[in-house]
Amino acid sequence: MSAFRRTLALGLLISITILVLESSCMNGNQTEQNSSLPLPEVNITVSVQMGTKAPLCCPAIPLTKAVLITWEITTRDQPPCRISYRVETKETNETNCTDRRITWVSTPDQSPVLQINAVALDHDGHYSCIIATHNGNFIERHDLQVLVPPAVTLSPGKNRTAVCEATAGKPAAQISWTPDGDCKTMNESHSNGTVTVRSTCQWEQSNVSAVFCFVSHLTGNQTRSIELNQGVTSTPLHSLLTILYVKLSLLGIILLIIGFVFFQKRNYFRK
């Protein structure tokens, strides 16, 4: 039941994150109609799966009120990038912006929304849209967190053990087992921000034959199962009988040879 609740909670969290991202852009369209101004500054945490598209929105104010639209981008291992659009002259300027995967969704005069066309690990960072108006500046900051699904494997070990591994996920995955066993879990962090989680469990009860590994992650949940006897070599009964027959046959031949030699020596001494 605990694994089910954890899975449900993670699913709700990623759904809420997506809804927040979509609703922030939808509010911009609604504001054009009612012309109400948003808060001067909004901070949003956005979680996006690697390889997908990510639209990043600006403060929801009418573009007719904008004088200057600026995107400030700070990502890992890259110098700060600045993209600006001056509404009056329709002039666009870029400073230190080399990532061609980050583009305007359309022309800036139609929509200031920025989009990452294929999210990668190096897109982790901060994205701020600043709209300058005659009434002041309005800012929407995005803390972009890239999600990486882990590669899941389940393998048998010795003495009724099994190893479940969630490799290179971001953030770290959570591993649970059914039925419960004597488990030890270790995390290994990598330089690119991903984490490998390895859980090793042992079941001493002889009535436990199959075990299930549940891996919970924001990108989706995975399940693996394995038979505990898998990988343990056992000799069939007919093979044991064959081995016993061969050994007894060899023993009989050896006894015959010893007996023959014994009688030969006995006859020799009589002569």
Q: Indicate the structural class.
A: alpha+beta
Radius of gyration: 34 Å
Number of strands: 16
Low-confidence stretches: 1-24, 26-35, 230-236
Return the CATH topology of the largest domain: Immunoglobulin-like
Beta-strand percent range: 35-45%
Biggest sheet record: 6 strands, mixed
Helix coverage percent of residues? 10-25%
Whole-number average pLDDT?
A: 82
Major sheet strand order:
1-9-8-3-4-5
* Count of helical stretches: 2
Label the CATH architecture of the largest domain.
Answer: Sandwich
* Order of helical and strand elements: HEEEEEEEEEEEEEEEEH
Shape annotation: rod-shaped
CATH superfamily of the largest domain: Immunoglobulins
Q: Total domains, how many? A: 2
Distance between the termini: 91 Å
What would your notes on this structure say?
With 271 residues, this protein is of the alpha+beta class. It folds into two domains: 2-147, Immunoglobulin-like; 151-227, Immunoglobulin-like (Sandwich). Helices cover 25% and strands 40% of the residues. It is built from two helices and 16 strands. It has helices at 2-34, 237-270; strands at residues 41-49, 54-56, 66-75, 81-86, 91-95, 102-104, 114-116, 125-133, 136-147, 151-156, 161-169, 174-178, 182-189, 195-202, 210-216, 222-227. It has a six-stranded mixed beta sheet with strand order 1-9-8-3-4-5. Strands 10-11-14-13 form a four-stranded antiparallel beta sheet, with no helix packed on it. A three-stranded antiparallel beta sheet has the order 2-7-6. Strand 8 (125-133) and strand 9 (136-147) form a beta hairpin. The N and C termini lie far apart (91 Å). The model is unreliable at 1-24, 26-35 and 230-236 (pLDDT under 50).
